[in-house]
Write a structure and sequence with these properties.
Length: 730
Amino acid sequence: MSAIAKGNRRFVLLAESPAPYSEAQIDTLVEALSDPAKLTPAQWIEIEQIAKKLASVPFNRSDEVEALHTDAARWLRALRLEAAGKKEAAADLLDGIWIGCLGEDRAQRLLAQARNLMGGPQRELAARRLAEVAKVSISHRTLGAVDRLAKQLRKGNLAFRRRTKIALLGSATLEFWLPALRAQCFAWGIDAEFHVGPFGQYQQEILQPGSATELFHPDIVVIASDYRSLGFPQESNDPGGEVQQRVNGLRSLWKQVRERMGAFVVQLNAEIPAQDPYGRLSAALPGGLGRMLRGFNLALWDAERAEPGVAVVDVEQIAAKFGKLAIQKQGWQDAVLWNTAKQYPSSQATPVLTQHLTGVFRAVLGLSAKCVAVDLDGTLWGGVIGEDGLGGIQIGGGPVGEAHAAFQTYLKALAARGIMLAACSKNNREDALAPFREHRGMVLKEEDFAVFVANWESKDQNLKEIARIINIGLDAIVFVDDNPMERARVHQNVPEVEVVELPLDPSGFVAALDEPLYFEALALTGEDRVRGQSIRTNQERAQLESQSGSVDDYLASLEMTVALSPFQPADMARIVQLINKTNQFNLTTRRLNESDVRQLFAGEGNYTQSLRVSDRFGDNGLTGVLIAVREGDALRVHTWLMSCRVMGRRLEEAVLAALGKFARTSGATKIVGEYLPTAKNEVVAKLYSTLGFTATGEPGIFEISTATTQDAPKFLKIIDHTNVDQQIEE
């Protein structure tokens, strides 16, 4: 047993004892600092307290501590420098101390470096470190510290990926959620402004015109109605009626939020209480409380599918995963805190719930990841294929091999739901492909990968190449590699990429990739299911293009069919998904929920268009959206976007030709285009000029006479239904 483990109680006493320390106490400290064993998160905090005390008194054993090369000694030296006000030196000493660490251990080290970078010239690095803390920590204490430091950083100019306003309404004291929510939103680049409704008055806040919530003009409304507020009886003779009554009540609230406030609804379902006087009968009896709550939760999921602009958060599953009656920690609920302050869930459980809420916020705002770039050796299988050969790698057939197979199974399921897989390996390409083609234990096959990159280039360069091939931003990629040094290099060189910190034991790989909720989604569309195949066929198209004499020859050889239709209910999930995820070919980057889209469609004289493209290689599905609103004698383009998968095919000319035809038919004399620049849509900065529009003199505003709009290119076969019927068929 290590010295730190043996002397843990004495170590705690050192943190609690006043300085100066006796020689015996210093001996205990040096012995503990000399041990190379890893410290617990609590011990990191205890060393921090000791360092603060040593900074204020003479310490004649500092040379002895300086000579130690353990992380614990380095930690103490850095924190003594911090306590002495030498923050830049402390930050330098702490740099990289977090490499290879996981969880709260990693969070504490990153937090210390972020603190010491705050006042210097590296505010951007401080913000990155602080964001990483909030991504890995589920400690309310640590997230509270992130929240406080983030407030200081916000006083400068910080770049955020999204800005949004979120209202929290419910049957508990939701102010307790704010520190964790603010920290977690900050971590994912969301500049969130929060409004908290009065305790227990979520219905009044939604139904009353002119309420504080309505005047806040939220983009997202969270309805946190716990099982107590729903008022289910312990047993009922009409369980179906009880469930339907409550679901109908919530659906009426959803409708008010969407129609009056124009906000997206995030609804929490009901935890099934761990303590029930009926015991197992609560679920066994047709009218038991446990059975009704299960039915209620299922009915909420059904209602979500039928309602636009609503997402349900599975509190029952989250509470079960956390532990409703934890033995070694505070459980999901704290009866004392509920009775005294109406706090729900407990302070330890709150960061876990808010982590899931933030995952849904990211999905609403189009910030979920799109691609997993995965290493091969040591990650998808045990061993090194180039050295061990097919017979020497471990995949299936043993504890290590089974762990790698389970991880492959998880990745294959991600691919099936539209998350693109990319291989990113330092290997000879043929060696890297051999297990996928020849090893019987492999779950993943070559065709499961949208992109396969195996060479001897650096991983950061290969990640940039993967992003280029798929045509996505680096911030849409999650990188998985068992080598901590490779992870650190990617952190350093391409900080936009999300890097998964894997444990040494491959049995923990699935949890490491799953728990940060990188891939939360609001819907699963047909286009999602074939996304990987679409990327592979795009690479075949690129090969064809390289063999063609000219761009137009290449485009003609694709034999493209373009189908244009007004918006339809069956397409609405995909349309909203595109609006909220597309960044490059997006003229205005306005983010809309389904209620917003339907309101725009319903406007008199407005025009909507969904674009589908197929060619000789396959069907790309619904890949483009245009919304134009009538303003007097003009049609103004409100939203115009296309998936990166179909860019560069002159499809924008077909889109504009159909809009021009509708405009002329409806009596409009001009089309007004708007370009709102963002960090990612520079590719369309000159689109309107290229299509014959003229600048009006007002920044970002262009116009063209409907008499001069051009026809679609001849090599495109056009099927245009937008000039026939602009009505949504319910």
